Amino acid sequence: MMSFRNLLLLLAAFAAALMTPAHAEKIHIAAAADLKFAMQDIVRAFKVKNPGDDLEVIYGSSGKFNTQIQQGAPYDLYFSADIAFPQALAKAGFAASPVKPYGLGRLVLWSSELDATKMTLASLTDPKITRIAIANPKHAPYGKRAVEALRATGLWEKTEPKLVYGENIAHAAQFVQTGNAQVGILALALAISPELAAKGGYWLVPEALHAPLTQGFIITKRAAGSALAKRFADYMDSQQARAVMVQYGFALPGEVTIK
Fold this sequence. Notes:
Blueprint: H1 4-19, E1 26-32, H2 36-49, E2 54-60, H3 62-70, E3 77-80, H4 84-91, E4 100-105, E5 107-111, E6 132-135, H5 141-152, H6 156-159, E7 163-166, H7 169-177, E8 183-187, H8 188-191, H9 194-197, E9 201-204, E10 213-219, H10 227-235, H11 239-247
Parallel strand pairs: 1-2, 1-3, 6-7, 6-8
Antiparallel strand pairs: 3-10, 4-10, 5-8, 5-9
Helix pairs in contact: 2-11
């Protein structure tokens, strides 16, 4: 016969089960480092409406995530600063959804010790500037576009010896924040975040100087049966999520952009 204590424990477990949403899941999201602040806001708002769900976001280099997913890394969604990476994954059979664009990234000059609002790329040749931070162009889209912009303006030879490379665009921003670089060629989304905006200004690099930073995401093959992955992907199209993306400079065609 069941004891009174065991009966109470059983009732408590039953009550807890009733209080837990039936769709409660956990997913892992690989996101380009430029999305850090925008994605934090979006995930926070999503969880208000879906309190039982658990979303873990890992930020880093789009190129490295691309390689890791091909090698079986347990990511359920992949947000890339270069849409070419998820497009290639989809073509190779690693996606469970079409590739969805979520914004167009922009490059800026940013500094916490210099007035970047009065600078241009030509300012980087100043002998007083000895360290310029960019993301590693070998695997980070923002770093690749920074190199393109410097080459397009004929400044590569003079600036290349000054470059210090971050593992991703957020790491490059840390170099400037900590004084290990005087200026950085960074993502607009980071420069206008509360963390950086309070410490320095920026100058927007003309889009014509580099290939577009069209960004996109996929649900990975691993998450083909995940209802949560599908709900979050759908939420990225919502008016609330798009407002956050535009706020951080990730506008899509037809949306108001930051000039």
